[in-house]
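Records of this kind hold a single protein each, on a pair of labelled lines. With that in mind, the following record should read easily:
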Amino acid sequence: MAFAVQSLRNRASATRPLINLKKIMKSIHPEFMYQSRELGIQIDDMLGDPPDRRNYDRVIDALIGEFASGFEVGDVNLLSFALANHLVFDDAPGLLAESHQYDAGDAAKVLKMVSCSNVESGNALATVFTADPELARKAIITAFLYKNPKRWTDEDHSLDALQEEEDKENKIEDDEEQVAHGEDIAHLFDTRGDDNV
């Protein structure tokens, strides 16, 4: 019985952050949440282990140059990957509000909420915005959410944190299986006890 109670307590403490997370993130569109997490994974993969910042910067500079010269992006994550470290978010509350809708938004309004750290990245953003305003809007918001996780979630979405969460879920499943096996055994003992009376 004590084991079952402890198992329920473990389950309650493990699910509590998920309840808070839903409350905190209810206004962020799920696609933006997904894109910002994917962006984090892409950046971690590009940096490597141990991080090779010089190689990462070379890749970013090459992408910025391509986009500034009119290369068709067509991918939210690729553009946000290139711009994430060059964007200055001048209106964080406004960008957070604009993250409520993924497919419908005011691209010109979002563009006014950011500036760029250098001329080349500004040219890249302006060129992409002229060709595809919606893509630029989505990439800006995705980069904003990636760079400002504390504004929209209390959870750590690093690979280590996601692994830890998965381990917790596996432990809960193991605990449930053990309780279920224990109940089956108790049931067998009860039946035998009845037969012996």
